[in-house]
Design a protein that fits this description.
The structure is a single chain. Helices cover 47% and strands 12% of the residues. It contains 10 helices and 5 strands, in the order H-H-E-H-H-H-E-H-E-H-H-E-E-H-H. A 5-stranded mixed sheet has the order 2-1-3-5-4, sandwiched between helices. Helix 1 (2-15) runs antiparallel to helix 6 (106-119). The radius of gyration is 16 Å and the shape is globular.
Length: 197
């Protein structure tokens, strides 16, 4: 029954066009994984490159996240037994006139994401970026969340800063992330992956 509910949820998300008028272009919902993925990763929204490719994290942020931070291959990252990859908004939200990406519309997270979080039987949840962290932990300090293990629905939950190349200042201001915390997170991630292999 739960598997059929999950399959229906996937079909409903793929068919969603709630933001078509807001975006001014055809939405393309992008997510990847299965109900039994061991790790659920939630970021902000797909980039334009991901919108074009139709595959999560096929951009510079993805390269840094997969190969430098996690130190895993594409075969592992895109294996649905290991990762369920989703976002606060499933579609690329478009560009601002100033050049940056628009913030993802909260209607997507409210309508779809909470259903995904409740139905995917993951062991670990990874939140990427301040937008996702603030949604799930609205009254907690962002940096404190990054440097500690947290709980969401009884599951171990870690918060990562966004791996975007433009996020330079945060890393300069918080050298302890690359020096120590990232290694702790990587060890936790690999311990779960090794159990699954």
């Amino acid at each position: 029954m739960e598997e059929s509910n999950f399959n229906k949820l996937k079909k409903d998300i793929i068919a969603c066009r709630l933001c078509k008028d807001t975006f001014g272009f055809e939405p393309r919902p992008i997510f990847h994984g299965s109900k039994h993925s061991k790790i659920m990763q939630i970021s902000q929204a797909p980039s334009n490159n991901v919108h074009i490719s139709g595959k999560p994290f096929t951009d510079l942020s993805g390269k840094r996240l997969k190969y430098e931070w996690y130190k895993i291959s594409d075969e592992i990252f895109y294996n649905p037994d290991y990762f369920y990859i989703t976002a606060m908004a499933h579609c690329y939200p478009g560009k601002l006139k100033s050049g940056g990406d628009r913030l993802p519309p909260v209607i997507c997270a409210n309508k779809w994401l909470m259903k995904e979080v409740s139905i995917v039987d993951s062991e670990l949840i990874i939140l990427i970026g301040k937008y996702a962290a603030s949604y799930f932990f609205p009254n907690k300090n962002y940096n404190e969340l990054i440097f500690s293990n947290n709980k969401l629905l009884g599951k171990t939950t870690i918060v990562l800063p966004h791996p975007s190349p433009v996020n330079i200042k945060w890393f300069k201001d918080n050298p302890g992330f690359m020096e120590k915390r990232l290694g702790e997170i990587r060890n936790l991630l690999h311990s779960i992956l090794n159990k699954s292999c």
